[in-house]
Specification:
The complex is a heterodimer of chains A (432) and B (297). In chain A, the strands form four sheets. A five-stranded mixed β-sheet of chain A has the order 2-1-3-13-7. In chain A, strands 4-6-5 form a three-stranded antiparallel β-sheet. In chain A, helix 7 runs parallel beside helix 10, helix 10 packs across helix 17 and helix 16 crosses helix 18. Chain A is 40% helix and 12% strand. With 432 residues, chain A is of the alpha+beta class. Chain A has two domains: 161 residues, D-Maltodextrin-Binding Protein, domain 2, CATH 3.40.190.10; 226 residues, Periplasmic binding protein-like II (D-Maltodextrin-Binding Protein, domain 2). Chain B contains 13 helices and no strands. Chain B has one domain: Orthogonal Bundle (MetI-like fold), CATH 1.10.3720. By secondary structure, chain B is mostly helical. The chains are: A alpha+beta (432), B mainly alpha (297).
């Protein structure tokens, strides 16, 4: 019985390969790697039941998917839940790479998508999802560095051009506070944990150039005046210490903050370009939401600059039996779904349209840049240093800065940075 | 005959096989794995992990940030003692056949039935600082009562935050204590109360000489639960504040170390230390309060 089954399988495989060899594709038998249904894991709980399930899924099934259905599983606690699932072989067919996976781990979990040198002609942000020249993940959309402002509030304080230096940024916030005492000049969204991480992450490269991240991976004291990591965290400290932020940061509320900036009760929030569309949609005043470039100009050209980077990278589970369907979905999602555009992002698909958040940038002549990839063989260095240093990326670091600056925690700005430097130095030393 | 005997020995094991199997699968196996992880530098996903000996345990006892979280437990322990005293008082009052006692009973037990997420959300609104979003419920109440000078940042003020959170914990768990105490009080022989009334013992005397000795073991148990509970506090401070502003407890530190810093090895050693503390407390309880019989007569 068993023998006969094996023989049957072998002969049908032989027949299939023969038929394909002579240019015949069997109409009935499912080709290798195609499945009736694939599962996609996503962190977008908000639009998974609507846009994903009702628009993208059916569009794919009817078009490129050749009848393959798509099931979306959305997780609020995406990183933790998916990391746990990754201890087994069942973590969906297509998934966003959780952010604590280092590039060196990509080959252990995900299918290779192609060579970086080839795919970078079609997609942006390729180096962020590749390891040793092979691509494992494609960004779902791209973000530009900058921050959200309520243009009406800034105008009411007499400010019409974005501040060009960190000192000017603080001075402008002070003007807003003086002109409109009821408006919160800068809202930290402390309670979310993730929102204030922008202060540490989004300054990389602005002062130290396109190799900023690679320099930091070797630098034993990156929190030193004039360096990228210092500028952002120092700015946060100064703003809080000067009383320019909300009074009780622990009771900030992310969902509630969206309509507040829309109606002008909050003047500034320091988040990437992905947030613009959400703030515009949160109330009746979308025209008041503007996106300003980070107040650090390119030291060489003297122009405003913005670093673009990929959002969550989409990858294919290496253990999936539906490799072909998964690849087709990935291609559809990246090139045809319109997801990046609808999010107001920079399109990872080079031929695709960018979102509409960048009109102010274009008027100012902002330079678009992206960070250089790590030199060959060092792809995981930055992530490894961060892990070995034990410097939290969940917002604890920034919450510490806020608490110290508002006098709720013992310590000084200098003591925080000295501590960060000594931890980072241990991390750098661990690379050997 | 022998067959019959072996059968008789075998049958009880047959009945408990499934619960024992589940216990082994869901409790003992994970604990053994936890010990194994605690001597490695595993990050939680990587298929490979390296043996690092006892260095994780060294970190637990030398890292001030981790060690400090044990002090946060003191607030919850203080809260738990207050909670026991309140619960004892309320249970005694309820046991005296108060009119509508059942209504009050269910009212007091109700918070215990709510899940932690709901409780946390309610108290987030109650404790809100009132910046852009309008003042929180507690501040409004205090203003109305003319106690406006007590208004503070209930979660934002670093000197107050742990008191606020311990208060939430009291509110949530007091019903559980009341149920325990009521059950114990009701199991005291009612003839004792009748006899005491005939001897003209007042309510205080009844409490002091009948109820208190009668429920000694439950009280001792509650104190032990309070100790281990206050070290293992997790859900409310985690959901309300994510452990920010000095509210990080030992368990929150463990979870963050494992999942946010990706150091499952170190987090496992933290969990082993917690297990050790709880076992120690239980051992102390077992030796101090042996299964002594209380004789009221």
């Amino acid at each position: 019985m068993r023998k006969r089954l094996v023989a049957g399988v072998v002969s049908s495989v032989l027949a299939a390969s023969f038929l394909t060899a002579i240019g015949f594709t069997p109409a009935q038998a499912a080709p290798a790697g195609w499945c009736k249904q694939i599962t996609v894991l996503t962190n977008r709980t908000d639009i998974a039941p609507t846009t994903f399930t009702k628009v993208y899924g059916p569009q794919f099934t009817a078009g490129a998917g050749n009848g393959t259905k798509v099931k979306f599983e959305a997780f609020t606690n995406y990183n933790q839940d998916v990391l746990t699932m990754m201890n087994t072989k069942n973590y969906g067919d297509v998934l966003g790479i959780p952010n604590s996976i280092t590039p060196a781990q990509f080959p252990k979990f995900f299918s290779p998508l192609g060579k970086a040198s080839v795919l970078s002609k079609t997609y942006r942000f390729i180096n962020e999802g590749s390891y040793n020249g092979t691509v494992y993940g494609l960004a779902q959309t791209g973000n530009a560095g900058g921050y959200d402002v309520n243009l009406k509030d800034w105008k009411a304080a007499g400010i019409t051009t974005p501040p060009a230096t960190p000192a000017e940024f603080i001075a402008d916030l002070k003007k807003i506070k003086a002109a409109e005492p009821d408006v919160i000049p800068l809202y930290t969204n402390y309670a979310t944990g993730w929102a204030p991480t922008a202060w540490t992450n989004s300054f990389t490269g602005y002062a130290q150039g396109v190799d900023g991240q690679n320099i930091m991976a070797k630098d034993k004291a990156p929190w030193t005046a004039g360096k990228d990591a210092f500028i952002g965290d120092d700015l946060l400290y100064q703003a809080v210490a000067a009383g320019l932020t909300e009074k009780d940061p622990t009771s900030t509320d992310w969902e509630a903050s969206k309509p507040l900036i829309n109606k002008g009760a909050i003047a500034t929030m320091f988040l990437g370009s992905w947030s613009v569309s959400q703030f515009q949609g949160a109330g009746p005043n979308p025209q008041d939401i503007g996106f300003y470039p980070i107040p650090v100009k390119d030291p060489k050209t003297g122009k405003f600059q913005t670093f673009i980077s990929g959002d969550v990278k989409q990858a294919i589970n290496k253990n999936s039996k539906c490799q072909a369907s998964a690849q087709a979905w990935l291609k559809y999602f990246e090139q045809d779904s319109g997801y990046a555009y609808s999010q107001g992002g920079i399109n990872p698909y080079i031929k695709g349209p960018n979102g509409e958040s960048y009109t102010i940038f274009d008027k100012l002549g902002v330079e678009y840049k992206s960070l250089n990839p790590a030199p060959a063989g060092h792809d995981s260095d930055f992530a490894n240093v961060q892990k070995a240093a034990g410097i939290p990326t969940d917002g604890t670091l920034e919450q510490n800065i806020i608490d110290t600056a508002r006098g709720a925690k013992a310590g000084t700005e200098a003591s925080i940075f000295a501590d960060l430097n000594s931890k980072w130095a241990t991390g750098v030393a661990s690379l050997g | 005959m022998i067959k019959e005997r072996t059968k008789r020995q075998f049958i009880p094991w047959f009945y408990v096989a499934i619960p024992l199997g589940l216990l082994a699968l869901l409790t003992f196996l994970p604990v053994i794995n936890m010990f194994r992880y605690s001597v490695t530098n595993w990050d939680g996903v990587d298929p490979t992990r390296q043996y690092v000996g006892m260095s994780n345990y060294g970190k637990v006892f030398t890292d001030p940030e981790i060690f400090h979280t044990l002090f946060v437990s003191i607030y919850y322990f203080g809260g738990a003692i207050l909670q026991i005293i309140f619960a004892l008082f309320l249970a005694t009052v309820l046991s005296y056949g108060l009119r509508g006692a059942n209504f009050y009973k269910s009212l007091l037990v109700f918070p215990f039935l709510l899940n932690a997420v709901a409780v946390s959300l309610v108290f987030r609104f109650l404790f809100r600082g009132g910046d852009g979003l309008g003042p929180g419920g507690l501040d409004v109440l205090l203003q109305h009562l003319g106690l406006g000078r007590f208004v503070t940042q209930w979660t934002g003020n670093p000197h107050v935050v742990n008191f606020s959170l311990a208060g939430v914990s009291i509110w949530r768990y007091i019903g559980f204590n009341i149920v325990l105490f009521l059950g114990a009080i009701q199991s005291i022989n009612p003839e004792l109360f009748e006899a005491a009334q005939l001897d003209r013992a007042n309510r205080w005397h009844q409490f002091r000489y009948i109820i208190l000795p009668g429920i000694r073991r439950i009280t001792a148990l509650s104190v032990i639960l309070a100790v281990s509970g206050s070290i293992a506090v997790f859900d409310i401070p985690y959901i309300m504040l994510g452990g920010a502003n000095g509210s990080t407890t030992f368990v929150i530190a463990t979870v963050k170390t494992a999942f946010n810093l990706g150091r499952v090895g170190l987090a496992s050693s933290l969990a082993v230390v917690l297990l050790g503390i709880v076992l120690l407390v239980t051992f102390v309880q077992r030796t101090l309060f042996k299964d002594e019989q209380v004789d009221l007569v």
